[in-house]
Amino acid sequence: MSRLVNLAIVVGGAALLAGMMLTNPDYNSVVRPFVTKVSAGDTGETRMFAGRFEAWRTADRVSFDSLGTSVTRDTEGVFLIVDLELSGTIRSTMVDTIWEGASKRRYASTKRVANVPRQVDQLWLQPGLSSTTFTVFELPPDEIEGGAAGGDYEL
């Protein structure tokens, strides 16, 4: 009788483990970004932050003050300057911004415009507090029309 009980325990445990393996999400499903699509003017919310696309403008040249020095940058493409309203949702976090162009290529915000007050990569988002910020992308001109803004959090 004890052999049958031991065998039943082993078979039951193996069945439970097999069930867990079949229903457990794979690694790529766990770490992939969650995409949230919203209409223009609406606020998109993810696990770590919420954001709204406020406005955008383009420029061939940008000038800014960085660490007490006036800096001017030119580009062979176009600078896309995006105004955002962001807030943290469950804990303090920072955000990296991306632009997905019309060709589906993804562009990170440019590092050529850095150390500017209120810029998104200088900003810690706090839960429940809204922050008005901006980010700058350096793109080919044909990537703006039909493109979309996005973000990814950093801990």
CATH topology of the largest domain: Immunoglobulin-like
Estimate the mean pLDDT confidence. 85
The CATH architecture term of the largest domain is Sandwich
Largest sheet: 4 strands, antiparallel
Structure class: alpha+beta
Total of domains: 2
The CATH class designation of the largest domain is Mainly Beta
Unreliable parts? none
Structure description:
The protein folds into two domains: 1-32; 35-154, Immunoglobulin-like. Helices cover 17% and strands 43% of the residues. The chain contains two helices and seven strands. The chain has helices at 2-23, 27-31; strands at 44-45, 49-66, 69-88, 94-100, 106-108, 130-139, 148-154. Strands 1-2-3-6 form a four-stranded antiparallel β-sheet, with no helix packed on it. It has a three-stranded antiparallel β-sheet with strand order 5-4-7, with no helix packed on it. The termini are far apart. The mean pLDDT is 85.
List keywords for this structure.
2 domains, 4-stranded antiparallel sheet, 155 residues, 2 helices, Immunoglobulin-like, single chain, 3-stranded antiparallel sheet, alpha+beta, elongated, 7 strands
Which SSEs are present, and which pair or pack?
Blueprint: H1 2-23, H2 27-31, E1 44-45, E2 49-66, E3 69-88, E4 94-100, E5 106-108, E6 130-139, E7 148-154
Antiparallel strand pairs: 1-2, 2-3, 3-6, 4-5, 4-7
Describe the structure concisely for a colleague.
By secondary structure, the chain is an alpha+beta fold.
